[in-house]
# Entry
Amino acid sequence: MFSFLRDSDEIPQNNPKLKAHAVKVFKMTCESAVQLREKGEVVVKETSLKYLGSVHLKNGVVDPHFQVVKEALVTTLKAAIGDEKWSHELEGAWAHAYDQLAAAIQLEIKQEAAAAVAA
# Structure
């Protein structure tokens, strides 16, 4: 699923590129949650969105991959926060923030793919 893991014999949890990707996903999801709370929508800078769309398209990312990453994010957050503080409301908020971010990236991937076909 991750292009940077394809030729690696390393345990995925020890891969610095996977860790860097996880941090980016977490930070962008946090930013999405803040935007949802403050503005009611997620807005990703056009340059960032273009970059994310082209990189994900180039690396063959498809819609189901986003679901896998969301499940990993929510599971990791639940483990870090702990069962006593975790709630369905908290899970729903994180999932919604991620879904909004993923939808923006997925739309950009589709637009990039359509532009490549048209060219």
In short: The chain has four helices and no strands.
